[in-house]
Amino acid sequence: MKNEVVPVQIRGILPANSGCALFVGNDDKVFVINVEPQMGAIIGMFLKNAPKERPLTHDLINLIFQGFSINVERVVITDLKNSTYFARIILQQQNELARKIVELDARPSDCLALAAAQKKPIFVSTALFAQVEDMSEVLEKMNESGSEAESD
Fold first, then answer.
1. Rg (Cα) of the chain, in Å, rounded?
2. How many helices (H) and strands (E) does the chain have?
3. CATH class of 5-151
4. What residue segments make up the domains of the chain, in order of their start?
């Protein structure tokens, strides 16, 4: 797996009227995944460990996972087709009898929310990482200007 994926983090979140830009990357490159405004806010809450008045959907999913001894192992942003990103979430369930690993197709925003909630690693496929446009300068300019971008 090491040669096929690149480790990344959520480097910033920029809310906008029509959506939210998630800046995902590492020291070499940062790219943007556009998500719904509410998903950007939820991911930001998980990154900041912000208290929530009521459990959100991803909190519920995490509670279900806990009840069945399931952990998020990692998430991988795998592909970009027709301006839509694709991702996989890798789950592990272990008990006294066996260890089971399941890989599921999921929206990148859901994968990133669950990874942020559980503080689990995020990866992007090497092929996709080579393909995406580097937005590092945009993120740096936003951080320098003190815009509303939230940085990790």
1. 16
2. 5, 8
3. alpha beta
4. 5-151
Q: How many CA atoms lie within 13 A of 94 on its CB side?
A: 5
C-alpha distances (whole Å) from 134 to each of 21, 29, 57, 114, 138 are 14, 5, 32, 25, 9
Model confidence at 59, pLDDT cuts 50, 70, 90, reads very high
Structure tokens that stand for 85 in this block: 């990103």
The set of residues, in sequence order, having a beta carbon less than 8 Å from that of 106 and lying 6+ positions away, is: 75, 87, 88, 89
Q: pTM value?
A: 0.88
Left (φ > 0), alpha (ψ -120 to 50) or beta: where does 60 sit?
alpha
Predicted confidence band of residue 16 (pLDDT cuts 50, 70, 90): confident
Query: Quick check: helix, strand or coil at residue 129?
Result: helix
H-helix or E-strand containing 3? none
Cβ of 149: how many Cβ atoms within 10 Å? 18
